[in-house]
Amino acid sequence: MLKTEISGINFENPLILAAGVMGSNASSLNWILDSGAGGVVTKSFSQEPNLGYSNPTTVAVEGGILNAIGLSSPGVQNFKKELALINKSNKDGQKNIAIASIYGSNPDEFSNLVHNIENDVDMIELNVSCPHAMSGCGAAIGQDPDLTYEIVKTVKNASSNNIPILAKLTPNVTDLMEIAKSAEKAEADGLTLINSLGPGMKIDIDAKKPILSNKFGGMSGPAIKPIAIRWVYDAYENCDIPIIGVGGISNYKDVVEFIYAGAKATQIGTSIMYEGIEIFSKIKNDLKNFMQKNEFNSIDEMIGYSHKN
């Protein structure tokens, strides 16, 4: 009932761990997979090691969290050791789906990463959207439709086994559909919408200065969900490739909204900090009950339902 498929990859359910600190090592990823997630996305990593920003890197704000990790990365050769330790199946014997999130500053860096890891994971997600990345990375790429096209196209051509490629896009643009169509034209296999909003800032009124060491960071959490839903809805009407919805999910009703808007799957990140990893099994059970109550036999029957009314 809960199964969903994206570019030939079958997920047991539409609940995926979003790229972030919970995906920093195999132990954490396996823990999430055994908790009921349909798949996991690693923390974004790069070709060479990157220290990222110093603490504090996160701060709670109204409606979510501001974070500026700075895309810290151990480098691909170190992270490959973690990828090798991800269990092939979960405690229930179901196949685990592992998605690697990668970033770079130019097409060559992305293609080299793909060469390094394409046999270690099931899919690759291109982070061309981080709003607090070091210069030349993240949203600096994803705000440019031509550069987005070039990177997606280069990565697709670089893959020797035609591994599915997802483009994770930034909402911090004038026209996100222009970027989405560029990724689709470059033959991306799917879109992940959206990355965090911003950048934003929170000031410590006693210290009289910004709390984050980088001063500003990306906004995630429940406050950004309506914006994420809107862009998933628009992408469903304007693009013909699968969509994974992410942004502010904390319960099954949020998941249903994303699916009705057009998402084939969803990603959960910030809410884990408040709800724990039990959030995956809880939402999975609640979603199944909702589907039975509303006489849906599959996720496919629900996808894009809001466009029919």
TrEMBL record:
Enzyme class: oxidoreductase
Domain Dihydroorotate dehydrogenase catalytic span(s) in chain numbering: 1-291
Keyword Cell inner membrane: no
Residues annotated as binding FMN: 43-44, 127, 168, 194, 221, 247-248, 269-270
Pathway linked to the protein: Pyrimidine metabolism; UMP biosynthesis via de novo pathway
Coiled coil stretches, renumbered: none
Alphabetized UniProt keyword annotations: Cytoplasm, Flavoprotein, FMN, Oxidoreductase, Pyrimidine biosynthesis
Cofactor note: Binds 1 FMN per subunit.
UniProt GO MF annotations: dihydroorotate dehydrogenase activity
Active site: 130 (nucleophile)
Cofactor: FMN
UniProt function note: Catalyzes the conversion of dihydroorotate to orotate.
Subunit and interaction comment: Heterotetramer of 2 PyrK and 2 PyrD type B subunits.
Name of the protein in question: Dihydroorotate dehydrogenase
Gene: pyrD
